[in-house]
Amino acid sequence: MTTHIERLIQQLDDPTGPSYDARAELIDMGSDAIPAIIDGLPSLDGFGQLTAIEVFEEVGDPRCGPALIGLLKSDNPTVREWAAMALASLDIDGAVEPLRRAYRACLERATPPDWSEPVGIRPPG
Predict the structure, then answer these.
(1) Using an 8 Å Cβ cutoff, are 104 and 85 in contact?
(2) Of 123, 125, 87, 85, which is closest to residue 105 (Cα–Cα)?
């Protein structure tokens, strides 16, 4: 049986409207929703992952750090960029080296420097 929170997480993938309501409800649940979102993250498509990143940023729970670090290896450049920016805005411990690796991977892919991904992933210092 699917729980209410699991249904909300599944709705994060629906760009036609339900994702916005699910996003708002998950944000209202706050830190209580974070473990379930982390568990459901691999089942989400790019849109759902981007919406989950928004929830992570709004809630500000540092437990999402490892999940965001994992998203730095996504096939989706926008997911990688948003995950990097969320790691920076949430000041997640242990994120500097993964961000450096993600930036090097971006350079190895020869992503043009004027695209938004290299700017979003650029490591500090």
Answers:
(1) no
(2) 123
Q: How confident is the model at residue 108 (pLDDT cuts 50, 70, 90)?
A: confident
Q: How far apart are CA 47 and CA 17, in angstroms?
A: 12
| Structure-block tokens of residue 107 | 């350079």
pLDDT in tens, 21-56: 999 999 999 999 999 999 999 999 999 999 999 999
Per domain, the residue ranges of the chain are 4-121
Residue with tokens 């998203």: 71
Tell me the one-letter amino acid at 10.
Answer: Q
CA–CA separation, 90 and 76 (whole Å): 21
4-121 topology per CATH: Leucine-rich Repeat Variant (1.25.10)
CA distance linking residue 18 with residue 103, whole number of Å: 33
Selection from 19, 118, 23 nearest residue 77 by Cα: 118
Kindly report each contact of residues 68-71 with a partner whose C-beta sits within 8 Å and lies 24 or more positions away, as own/partner: 68/92, 68/95, 69/94, 69/95, 69/98, 70/41, 71/41
